[in-house]
Fold this sequence. Notes:
The structure is a homodimer of 149-residue chains. Chain A has 149 residues and is α+β, with helices and mostly antiparallel strands. Helix content of chain A is 41%, strand content 23%.
Amino acid sequence: MYPLFKKLSTALASKNIRPSFQRIKVLEYLIENPCHPTVEQIFTDLQSIIPTLSKTTVYNTLNIFHKAGLVRVLNIEDNETRYDIITETHGHFKCEECGTISNFNIDIDSIETDGLSGFKVNDRNIYFKGVCPKCLLNIKHIDRKEHIS
Amino acid sequence: MYPLFKKLSTALASKNIRPSFQRIKVLEYLIENPCHPTVEQIFTDLQSIIPTLSKTTVYNTLNIFHKAGLVRVLNIEDNETRYDIITETHGHFKCEECGTISNFNIDIDSIETDGLSGFKVNDRNIYFKGVCPKCLLNIKHIDRKEHIS
DNA sequence: GTTTGGATTTGTAATGATTACTAATATTAA
DNA sequence: TTAATATTAGTAATCATTACAAATCCAAAC
Lengths: 149, 149
């Protein structure tokens, strides 16, 4: 039994989630791939390890993890829900050109808000959209070429 | 011709959107209903004014408005995209009990971020989740009742 | 070790939001 | 008025997600 496996198993148990093989593998995947994967990505990649895996199981597992506060659900864009292991609070940036989602640091708790007195806040999400440096470079190149021709 | 109609018409024209009757009515609806409606709500309510209205038209119109920067798309929860007329930047709070989405003031531009140098930011979104004061009251009542019984 | 009951997983069918597509309609310019 | 173009309507298709039921697994009791 690998030490990581054991560690993840107890982590799940401490949240009252029975540590089945599938659940541990999904958790492991999320930790090793903090790139905000979709259900499709998780399912496809884990199929090589668990050939009998069902997509329903991935959905079920992620919903359980979400309820237990283990993962954050990202709904930046429609029709692609993404999942993120909850570590420290950070913001998400989605590049509108290449679609990549990257993290940035932000002290969410320090944000001053007006109009939330009496509200119980459980979850704070921040996401920005725009163009990442890589794509900005490409766009500039294209612009220059178009200018020359 | 009502003055508002004329005003909305020129507003659309200034964004290079041809001011059809349907588009003006959708815009008018969004302005009069800043309650983050879903496509379903917009469609149902406008049907009484435009009986021949198609849901596809509502989708098309909202997508056009979005591209023109007239509306903000809210994807707080999966499977319910909501639309919000863009006025000033504000945060959104979704009550996990009753589902209501309310606004709160926030100076998004003043937020300090680390890790976004070189990024071109076009859109900033903040949403919190939790329980609104109304539902907090109800939950407390239920708790008390359960405690007594 | 076997049995039993409950939890988990699987796979298929259903749901529901969104998009694709095409014919009909409306609008603009000539 | 006519022709060209944009918009709308309506249906069919797509795709992510959920519902459901049967199969499987697992842990505790015997």
